[in-house]
Structure formats: C-alpha cells, structure tokens
Amino acid sequence: RAKDEGGGGHFEYEPALHSNAEERRVLEFSLRSALEKNEFVLHYQPVVDAKTEELVSFEALIRWNSEEHGFVSPAKFIPLAEDTRLIVPIGTWVMQEACREAALNWPENVKVNINVSPEQLVEPDFAGTVVRALSHSGLDPKRLEIEVTESIFMRDANVARKALEQCMALGCSVALDDFGTGYSSLGYLRKLKFTTIKVDRTFVQGAAQNSPESLAIIRAVVAMADSLGMTTTAEGVENEEEAEMIRRLGCNKIQGFHFGRPMPSEDARKIFRNAAAGARKRA
Length: 283
Ligand code: C2E
Ligand code: MG
Ligand code: MG
Ligand code: MG
Known about the structure:
Bound molecules: ligand C2E, magnesium ion
Distance between the termini: 77 Å
Strand order of the largest sheet: 1-2-4-5-6-7-8-9
Shape: globular
Oligomer: single chain
Order of helices and strands: HEEEHHEHHEHEHEHHEHEEH
Largest sheet: 8 strands, mixed, barrel
Radius of gyration: 21 Å
C-alpha cells in the first residue's frame, strides 16, 4: 500500500481518500434501510408564473432525516443513491408519494414536478412506474412534469429518450433541469421535445451581478426555447431585483427562495386553504 512505501505524496492524501470512502460506506449502509424506516419526506417548492406570480406547480424535493446521521442533504445522498442504484426504489417512492399528495390535496390547476435520475430512466419499466403512480393516485397525467438533466444523454441515451417519450404519450410533460451546467449540447434539444427548459441558478445569479455573458445566455436560451415551442423556468430567484430582471428577459416561470422555499406538505396545503378562505370571505 502507498502508506508503507514510505515515499512522498501518497502518504499525504491517502487518509483523506480513505475517510471519504469510509463516509460513503457508512452512509450507504444507512441509506439501504432508510426507505423501510420511513426516513424520507418530500418538501415542495412553488413554481410561479413570471407575469402573474400565480402558483403553477410545486417541485417535489426529497429530504432524508437519518436516525444515524441526522439531516443529510440530497446533494450528498442522491449521487450515492445513483451509484448504488438505490435511487430506483427511492425514486419510485418519490413518484408515488408526490402524485398522491398532488391528487389528494392540491387544486387541479396546480402541477407537480418530480426529479428523475438517469438510473431510473434506463430501468426496463420506468413508464410502468409512472403509469402505476398515476393510476393509484388518480392524478391526471397532464399535471405531472418529469425533470431530468442533460446527464440522461450521457449513456443509454436512446433508452432514456424512449422512456420519456412514453411518458409524454401519456400526457406528462418533461423539463430539462439545470440547463447550461452540464455538457450542454444543443443537439439534445433536437432529440427530445422538452416542454420546459429550466435555466440554472448560476445564470440568474450572474445576470443579477451584471455579468453580460449570463444576461446574453439567458436571453439566447429564452429565444431558442421560444422558437422550439418550449417554455422557460428560471431557477433560484432570491430577490425582487432578480425577479424583475427575469421577467424582463422573458422567462415564463420562476422558482426560488423569493417566491417560496421548499416546504413540508402541510405548509403547501395551507397555501390552498388560505386562498380558499380568502375567496369565501370576498364572496
Ligand atoms: P434541483 O432539481 O435543481 O432543485 C433545485 C435545488 O435548488 C433545490 O435544492 C432547492 O432547494 C434549491 N433552491 C431553490 N430555490 C433556490 C434559491 O432561490 N436559492 C438557492 N440557493 N437554492 C435554491 P435541494 O432540495 O437541496 O436539491 C438538490 C438537488 O437534488 C435537486 O436539484 C435535484 O437534482 C436533486 N433531488 C432532489 N430531490 C430529488 C428526488 O426526489 N429525486 C432525484 N432523482 N433527485 C432529487
Ligand atoms: Mg429539479
Ligand atoms: Mg434544477
Ligand atoms: Mg439547479
């Protein structure tokens, strides 16, 4: 082993590598039983119409409260779940849970956005999973938008594309998430008729800081989406200045802390209850 060779660089970085692998192993062990221990919950973040600020959808975002590790960020455990394929059963749970919540507790004009990993899409029966989640919950397929990133085109691109096309044939829509951060190739936009392009928060931030490149990129993405018959959503809008800028650039929908953080299902339901109570009062 590098350690025993007594030479130079190896010695210094090996312990760090080791603890990283160790951390993953420990986390993976807990992740394996997290579903049956009911440690996952979904939070929901509003997506609003850029012009009217009306709520058009909630994006489901998974949260893991682990008995052993406390709260673990999805940025940490989703990649691990993908590497171990645990994302397949976890993703099926997310699909069922989010569809059920939307069908049972939200008005019919509010959609649900669900993130799906490439590993889920290349499972032989991904569309079947969607069909079952829809039929068990009674959710209208038109209310479901599946979010994928460009990484679905990295391998088994045809399998992933066919799975998404099956979902679109059911009436679901598909959003291209985090656009601009991956190996963005415009060729991807030809391969699948996405409903929505989600412009990544890094461009929103850049544009707010007067980066001419970020501004130009958002403008170009909006124009391109328009000509392709796709809509745009700006991610990570944190204040009124950013919202105003995004409106001026012509994005159709906005998401971000300024309009609402991801919240527990109960808080999301309260929004509808309060709106209904307000409407009764006015009547
Ligand atoms: P994403 O799908 O791009 O989700 C947006 C992320 O940005 C969320 O982080 C959200 O909390 C955060 N965000 C939203 N608005 C703002 C803002 O104004 N400012 C800032 N700083 N952040 C904002 P979160 O919940 O930690 O999720 C991270 C990623 O984990 C998601 O990115 C998605 O790729 C993945 N993920 C979450 N839930 C699921 C899931 O159920 N399945 C799969 N496969 N992936 C998931
Ligand atoms: Mg997303
Ligand atoms: Mg995103
Ligand atoms: Mg993002």
